[in-house]
């Protein structure tokens, strides 16, 4: 089984000079899901990991460079997530590779990423538009004292069963750390739900309690989804985190209750 410690993370790696799909490093999702009590065969959510790539280039049939940006969507049902540094190295390996046309380049990337994830990955050129303000109510200016920065503290979460609402709450204060290198991962997170009204101060303190926690982006979002579900008992729930860019890539894991459709319109935060 591949583990983060087996990947190129935290190691000096030569810049790739030729196309090499073997650079892509899959990490099985099962282990992290078992840690938070999720059954791989009966996941309580649907979703995807949306990557946005800003440093993408290859050569056309006559050797002239082409440049692009791209949006990549990996289904959360894939057996593997794609380790981010390996993803960056793989994209760099395309820099000196010739393709007859843009469609051939996209087909190659789609094929290689799908093989790594173990499921059908979609790749489209272009990225979503920027938005200046988060949707819903921001929690970030609430007057609360913070003393807990890790591990995540689900005991902060509670909701008022007598007050059922449909709303979106957001925060730009989510931070966690890479489980291998210890480097910080910064994100904005939105929580959309219907159910007992979630306590604002408790949710903010819970999100900030990830500040010294070491876990991959996708795993953090699944933990947030699971713990809000367990503690607050929403009728349905949707959680998305928009992480800032590193190495020309950002990742936006989205998880939602079964039956909730993926957002019809995706956007990027200003920090992305």
UniProtKB/TrEMBL annotation:
Domain of life (superkingdom):
Bacteria
List of residues binding NADPH: 84-85, 246-247
Q: Residues of the signal sequence?
A: none
EC category name: oxidoreductase
Q: What keywords does the record list, in alphabetical order? A: Cytoplasm, NADP, Oxidoreductase, Queuosine biosynthesis
Give residue ranges for domain NADPH-dependent 7-cyano-7-deazaguanine reductase N-terminal: 15-123
**Which residues make up the binding site for substrate?**
82-84, 217-218
Where is it located?
Cytoplasm
Q: Which Gene3D superfamilies match?
A: 3.30.1130.10
Please name the InterPro entries in this protein's record: GTP-CH-I_C/QueF, NADPH_dep_7-cyano-7-deazaG_red, QueF, QueF_N, QueF_type2
Main location group? cytoplasm
Q: Which GO terms describe its molecular function?
A: preQ1 synthase activity
Where in the sequence is the active site?
A: 178 (thioimide intermediate), 185 (proton donor)
What's its EC? 1.7.1.13
Please name one Pfam family that this protein belongs to: QueF
| Pathway stated in the Swiss-Prot or TrEMBL entry | tRNA modification; tRNA-queuosine biosynthesis
Q: What catalytic activity is recorded?
A: 7-aminomethyl-7-carbaguanine + 2 NADP(+) = 7-cyano-7-carbaguanine + 2 NADPH + 3 H(+)
Q: Which family does it belong to?
A: Belongs to the GTP cyclohydrolase I family. QueF type 2 subfamily.
**Its job:** Catalyzes the NADPH-dependent reduction of 7-cyano-7-deazaguanine (preQ0) to 7-aminomethyl-7-deazaguanine (preQ1).
Subunit details: Homodimer.
What's the name of the protein? Answer: NADPH-dependent 7-cyano-7-deazaguanine reductase
| Gene from which this protein is expressed | queF
């Amino acid at each position: 089984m591949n583990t983060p410690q087996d990947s190129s993370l935290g190691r000096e790696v030569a810049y790739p000079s030729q196309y090499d799909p073997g650079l892509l490093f899959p990490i099985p999702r099962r282990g992290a899901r078992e840690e938070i009590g999720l059954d791989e065969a009966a996941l309580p959510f649907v979703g995807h990991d949306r990557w946005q790539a800003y440093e993408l280039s290859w050569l056309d049939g006559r050797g002239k460079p082409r440049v692009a940006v791209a949006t990549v969507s990996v289904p959360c049902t894939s057996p593997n997530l794609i380790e981010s540094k390996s993803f960056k190295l793989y994209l760099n390996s395309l820099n000196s590779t010739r393709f007859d046309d843009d469609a051939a380049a996209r087909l190659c990337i789609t094929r290689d990423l799908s093989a790594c994830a173990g499921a059908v990955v979609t790749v489209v050129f272009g990225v979503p538009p920027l938005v200046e303000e988060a949707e819903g109510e921001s929690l970030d200016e609430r007057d609360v004292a913070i003393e807990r920065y890790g591990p995540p503290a689900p005991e902060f979460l509670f909701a008022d069963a007598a007050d059922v609402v449909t709303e979106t709450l957001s925060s730009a204060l989510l931070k966690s750390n890479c489980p291998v290198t210890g480097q910080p991962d910064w994100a904005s997170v939105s929580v959309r739900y219907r159910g007992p009204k979630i306590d604002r101060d408790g949710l903010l303190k819970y999100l900030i309690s990830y500040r010294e926690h070491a876990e991959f982006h996708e795993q953090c979002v699944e933990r947030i989804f699971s713990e809000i579900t367990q503690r607050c008992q929403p009728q349905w729930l949707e959680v998305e985190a928009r992480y800032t860019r590193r190495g020309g890539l950002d990742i936006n894991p989205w998880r939602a209750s079964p039956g909730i459709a993926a957002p019809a319109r995706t956007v990027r935060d200003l920090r992305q």
